[in-house]
Amino acid sequence: MNELIQKAKSLLESNVVQVVIGYGKGTADKTRAIFATKPDDCNQLLFDSRCVQNLAVYLTKHEIKHLGKPAIVAPIPVLRSILQLAAENQLKETDLVILGVSPESKLIEFESFGAIEVFLETHKIEIDEKYKATIDKIKAMPVSERFAFWMEELEPCFKCYACRAACPLCYCPKCTVENNQPQWIPAASHLLGNLEWHVMRAMHLAGRCTDCEACYTACPMGIPIHLLTKSMLQDVEEHFGPYGPSVGKQNTLSSFNPDDKESFIR
Ligand code: SF4
Ligand code: SF4
To answer: Which of 53-57, 110-114, 256-260 has the highest mean pLDDT?
Structure first.
């Protein structure tokens, strides 16, 4: 950790970056994002197993871009999200300095997105067996039972949009839910509207979600929305091949392959 603090301080002192986005002490026993703009601010930086927020969410925020060039503390989920944002032309290599953190909490400096891709080759997204079993169980339900399952799970959603705010890939300046002419998704929270919102969100993240679980962690109601995105990851892999963010790769739902097995595409 000391190494990370020293590196962050030196980046600010030499004016290579103007802000360091990292984790700091939050309320209770939680951590929160901190934005260090002075070398002394870096003393607040910490990294441990409580640092589950995906800091890549701040890289596209107008308010943070205003602070100048950032360095970002990047454990594996953040690295994956940085690559996905780069693949979607939201980030360039020269836009930021990446302070990677290995699973052993060691600082790794990445000079290029290519170097991150090489590193992630040995840290691929793996859906936990416990989630696989739950997803399989839900998928095996008859349609009416599955529909009833999701209606019940999504019933407590009161549309606070914390899940969207926590997701680095929900960066559209205007979300479909805010469109009211025409209004595709009802703004108010009610059973069918909740289902529409979550199906729409999962579809928009198909082939883009980096499985960081920040959306699930942010949900004050503990709704298992991560099961939708994990299931979508499995489906994308099954139908479109191995999944993993890559700068040169087209997004699954915004590209097509003339050799696709479906005939309608020809
Ligand atoms: S949908 Fe959830 S798990 Fe996927 S990238 Fe966004 S926050 Fe992470
Ligand atoms: S964070 Fe939870 S309650 Fe809020 S909109 Fe998302 S799913 Fe609904």
So the answer is: 53-57
The CA 45 to ligand 1 mean position distance, Å, reads: 24
The single residue listed with the structure tokens 């934005």 is 35
Evaluate the omega torsion of the peptide bond into residue 156 and state whether it is cis, within 30 degrees of 0: no
What is the rounded CA–CA span in Å between residue 138 and residue 245? 27
Q: What is the pLDDT of residues 36-76, one digit of tens each?
A: 999 999 999 999 999 999 999 999 999 999 999 999 999 99
pTM for this predicted structure? 0.93
> What are residue 98's DSSP bridge partners?
72, 110
Task: Work out the number of other CB atoms within 10 angstroms of the CB of residue 114.
Answer: 14
What pLDDT score does 3 carry?
A: 93
CA of 151 to the centre of ligand 2 (A): 14
Torsion of CA 167, 106, 110, 209, to 10 degrees: -20
Rg (CA), the chain: 20
What is the bridge-based pairing of β-strands 31-36 and 19-25?
antiparallel
The C-alpha atoms of residue 82 and residue 113 are separated, in whole angstroms, by 8
CA of 10 to the centre of ligand 1 (A): 32
Q: How many CB atoms sit inside 10 A of residue 236's CB?
A: 19
Ligand nearest to the CA of 227: 1
Nearest C-alpha neighbor of 70 from the set 33, 35, 46: 35
